């Protein structure tokens, strides 16, 4: 028996749909096949418009699961997917639309359904690919600007898991509830015209989802970001030290404003890196400028960071004493400390044995007992830059 299912992807009331029909065969249930034919509408009408591939997953009653990917054809209107080795009976069909040809990433639209193919019967169904957009976020969510000034808002789409969903610019639009107060162009650029307030909305016409930002136009200096202040402004760190900087938004009257989204960056991330919370990590000698950029206004604030290598004051070896038998090996650890007793990152140095015939040591501090000792052998690590050194006493015992 062979089961053939034809599937068509077409525009239907603003959603892409898969229409399937199937027929059964004899009562004996050998492995069957499934053929799906996808009809691609014009790219400007496809829902979602950014779709370049459709992935279809089919699972039969026996638990066998397989998938195929259909890419938008370079020419023509149809793609065909063929599945083999399926069992007749209950089939589940999952379809997802993606913006990339490899059908990877975040799905733009998805849907699932089940179909039962039985002997002597024909089954018809329609599978609609609904947009995965769960919400639209506009940043910043509120904005205060002066008449005559302009600022650009950002609209993003996310699915229920918080993943970013790509949108087609041809299917999105910006609007202002009162364009006499502030207008907005197709790129989200808001221009303040007169005092008042308006809701600026970003809409994805395919999913019907929208997000809004409250825009207040005022001549008052209070509440409008005038500058960004990063503190402390100067920072002296030693290699491996960390320090968290703080960004404060201030208006023209020097009043502190609520925290708002922004990005941290370093002028030289090889000297000092900075994470999304403003935590700076000193990596090597040098200087770097750490900058916080306020997303909504583009205003920036900076702080300087100077990184130096800490001075090694002492070297200790762990363990300080060790006992080995002949041919036994173990590894010693050199520990560098500054004058305050703070452990420093290990730097270049040399290992040496006071009697290499009885105890050897390699460049990594691994020692090996070669002969029985009558007195302890000193294993020494000397820090190259400072000349500071530390030693451990090693005794080699005979075989018991």
From TrEMBL:
PROSITE patterns: PROKAR_LIPOPROTEIN. Keywords: Signal. It comes from the Bacteria. Residues 132-213, 224-303, 311-395 form the BIG2 domain. InterPro entries: Big_2 (IPR003343), Invasin/intimin_cell_adhesion (IPR008964). Residues 1-21 form the signal peptide. This is Uncharacterized protein YjdB.
């Amino acid at each position: 028996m062979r089961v053939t299912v034809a599937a068509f992807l077409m525009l239907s009331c603003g959603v892409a749909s898969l229409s399937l029909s199937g027929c059964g065969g004899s009562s004996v249930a050998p492995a069957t096949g499934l053929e799906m034919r996808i009809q691609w509408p014009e790219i400007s009408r496809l829902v979602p418009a950014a779709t370049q591939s459709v992935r279809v997953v089919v699972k039969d009653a026996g638990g066998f699961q397989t998938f195929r990917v259909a890419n938008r054809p370079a020419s023509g209107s149809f793609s065909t997917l063929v599945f083999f080795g399926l069992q007749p009976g209950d089939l589940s069909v999952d379809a997802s639309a993606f913006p990339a040809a490899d059908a990877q990433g975040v799905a733009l639209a998805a849907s699932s359904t089940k179909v039962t193919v039985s002997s002597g019967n024909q089954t018809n169904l329609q599978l609609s690919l609904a947009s995965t957009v769960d919400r639209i976020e506009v940043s910043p969510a509120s904005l205060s600007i002066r008449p005559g000034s302009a600022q650009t808002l950002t609209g993003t789409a996310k699915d229920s898991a918080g993943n970013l969903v790509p949108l087609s610019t041809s299917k999105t639009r910006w609007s202002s509830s009162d364009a006499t107060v502030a207008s907005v162009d197709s790129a989200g650029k808001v221009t303040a015209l007169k005092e008042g307030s308006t809701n600026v909305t970003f809409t994805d016409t395919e999913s019907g989802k929208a997000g809004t930002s409250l825009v207040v136009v005022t001549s008052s200096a209070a509440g409008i970001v005038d500058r960004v202040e990063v503190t402390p402004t100067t920072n002296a760190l030693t290699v491996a030290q960390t320090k968290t900087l703080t960004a404060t938004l201030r208006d023209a009257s020097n009043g502190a404003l609520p925290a708002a989204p922004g990005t941290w960056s370093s002028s030289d991330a090889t000297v000092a890196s900075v994470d999304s919370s403003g935590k700076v990590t000193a990596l090597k000698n040098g200087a770097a400028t750490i900058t916080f950029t306020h997303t909504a206004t583009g205003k920036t604030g900076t702080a300087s960071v100077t990184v130096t290598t800490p001075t090694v004051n002492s070297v200790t070896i762990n363990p300080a004493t060790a006992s080995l038998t002949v041919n036994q090996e173990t590894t010693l650890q050199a520990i560098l400390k500054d004058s305050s007793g703070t452990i420093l990152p290990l730097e270049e140095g040399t290992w040496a044995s006071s009697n290499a015939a009885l105890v050897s040591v390699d460049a990594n501090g691994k020692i090996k007992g070669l002969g029985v000792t009558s007195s302890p052998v000193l294993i020494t690590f000397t820090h190259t830059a400072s000349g500071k050194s530390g030693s451990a006493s090693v005794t080699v015992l005979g075989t018991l």
